[in-house]
Amino acid sequence: MEPLNERAIIVGVQLQKDTHFEYSMEELENLAGALGVEVVGELNQNLDRINPAHYIGSGKVDELKALYEEVDANLIIFNDELSPSQIRNLEEDLECKVIDRTMLILDIFSRRAHTREAQVQVELAQLQYMLPRLVGLRASLGRQGGGSSGGLANRGAGETKLELDRRKIEDQITKLRRELEQIKEQRTTQRKQRLKKGMANVSLVGYTNAGKSTIMNGLLNKTGQDDDKQVFEKDMLFATLDTSIRQIRLEDNKTFLLSDTVGFVSRLPHHLVKAFRSTLEEARNADLLLHVVDVSNDEHNYMMQVTDATLQEVGVENVPTLYVYNKSDLAGVAYPKASKDSVWISAKEGVGLDELLESIRERLFSDHVTCRMEIPFDRGDVVAYLNDHTTIKETEYGEAGTLMTVELSRADYDRYEQFVVGK
């Protein structure tokens, strides 16, 4: 889809239980805007259930066709994922280009993907979406095969072409999955190396455009990092898809890794969530999640629910979480302030970042203990664990075993207290 000169009508069905329908339509318009598509009309319908043939009722199809001609549109975008038969029926009856919310999001992602990993993930999701829709997306084949010479032979040729396309797509899916598996293995290796250094991992998660990249850049600035470590930030949906990992060094030389993950959105395509699963493993393996919330948005509670549900879908569970209520300056709430599990900040203004760093420090390092241990030579398993999971300040070898000065968590201290020989 070209980003310019697209004039679209957006179409949605409000089911009885959908209390966030208006917001989802507003979001659909913003998603279209992210591709430079101008929304010139909107059509909604209240239904008990989605119409299986056309998504909307047959009367509404006629109404939509009239509106399409009236506003001189050249595209219709539907607010849900359409089935292959719905796309085919709508394109035949409306005689125009039809796309759904999933296609729109996939297109945005494909334009924003810069690293090879993000590109592979998006292409995989696009192909998985396209595979069952080949007939609908290539309806022109059927029309092409008509004519007076007896449609059977032509239709057969069309079907052969579809089979070729299907096989090509399936082969490409297999190839991309293999490549993604290799990238995942590289990530796992890198993660193990970081673990060996005993560094805590903090992961930024949240709805798209909540301010995750702005917070990362603010913390890098606050801790005196170079400008070349800054990540891309812009006030738009899905400004960045690529996971960035930066090291944050505090004044007392304590360090942690901060990773920025892809933002979420309601009705995020299932294939896309699955494809980005390896990227989101940074969050699954985090010691602390910073759940960034745009508190100035009236729908921020709903956005939090969407984020939690998506994290659960990729297996991010039981990770300690600090809620970072960003854009407090626009919300008219008191800030900066911090409570037990929340911090109110304005990352754009740089206000509240000290409170955020202090909250992170309390959660990551408050129970750390520095002590001296003597590990018998036959307990190499303990030495290996300490090397992998704690900060080793000094190592020497005595007659009875390995002498180590270690900074470690309270849980690890309790676990290995029998080896402690001094503070």
From TrEMBL:
**Record key words, sorted:** Coiled coil, Cytoplasm, GTP-binding, Magnesium, Metal-binding, Nucleotide-binding
What CDD domains is this protein classified in? HflX
Hflx-type G domain mapped to chain residues: 200-368
Coiled-coil spans are 159-193
Question: Where found?
Answer: Cytoplasm
Keyword RNA-binding (UniProt): no
Question: According to the UniProt entry, where is the signal peptide?
Answer: none
- Alphabetized PROSITE patterns for the sequence: G_HFLX
Domain of life according to the entry: Bacteria
Query: Where mainly located?
Result: cytoplasm
Q: InterPro entries given for it?
A: G_HFLX_dom, GTP-bd, GTP-bd_M, GTPase_HflX, GTPase_HflX_N, GTPase_HflX_N_sf, HflX_C, P-loop_NTPase
- Give the multimer and partner information: Monomer. Associates with the 50S ribosomal subunit.
User: HAMAP family given for it?
Assistant: GTPase_HflX
NCBIfam families (UniProt xref): GTP_HflX
Cited function = GTPase that associates with the 50S ribosomal subunit and may have a role during protein synthesis or ribosome biogenesis.
Describe the family membership recorded for this protein in Swiss-Prot or TrEMBL. Answer: Belongs to the TRAFAC class OBG-HflX-like GTPase superfamily. HflX GTPase family.
Q: What is this protein called?
A: GTPase HflX
